[in-house]
């Protein structure tokens, strides 16, 4: 976790407590350097570096959908704008969608912009990225 030292300490106490509890190392860096670290994504003075997003495997996707009596799956084909994808994921999470499917070809990947736009919902929604949407749809039938 990297934090800008100019942030008001009182406002980040919950973040610091969570970092301590989960043994996440904290370092401090000026906002300008944080922006270089973040690239095009606008930060708010706190940056967490994560590993690449782990999509559900095909087997895990079917396990999630089959373990629910009436699964609701949101299938998105070629959503290219990362802001739109993040907003869709945020909405899907708020209405308890069982799982989401995005296409590997022609669609956006889960990245920092998607994570920020989704307000973190991307970390609570099971998302499968499929190479063969037609086969997946046929299997879901």
Based on the model shown, name its key terms.
3-stranded parallel beta sheet; alpha/beta; single chain; 2 domains; elongated; Alpha/beta knot; 141 residues; 3-stranded mixed beta sheet
Q: Can you write the helix and strand succession as a string?
A: EHEHEHEHEHEH
Counting structural domains, the number is 2
Instruction: Sum up the overall morphology in one term.
Output: elongated
> Helical residue percent?
40-55%
CATH topology description of the largest domain: Alpha/beta knot
Poorly predicted sequence stretches spanning 5 or more consecutive residues: none
Q: Helix/strand/pairing class, anyone?
A: alpha/beta
The CATH architecture of the largest domain can be named as 3-Layer(aba) Sandwich
Mean pLDDT: 90
Number of strands: 6
State the name of the first-level CATH class of the largest domain.
Answer: Alpha Beta
Protein described:
The chain is α/β, with parallel strands linked by helices and 141 residues long. The chain has two domains: 2-47, no CATH class; 58-140, SPOUT methyltransferase, trefoil knot domain (Alpha/beta knot, 3-Layer(aba) Sandwich). It is built from six helices and six strands, in the order βαβαβαβαβαβα. It has helices at 9-21, 31-38, 58-66, 82-94, 112-117, 133-140, and strands spanning 2-3, 27-28, 46-47, 73-76, 99-103, 127-130. The strands form two sheets. It has a three-stranded mixed beta sheet with strand order 2-1-3, with helices on one face. A three-stranded parallel beta sheet has the order 4-5-6, covered by helices on one side. Strand 5 (99-103), helix 5 (112-117) and strand 6 (127-130) form a beta-alpha-beta unit.
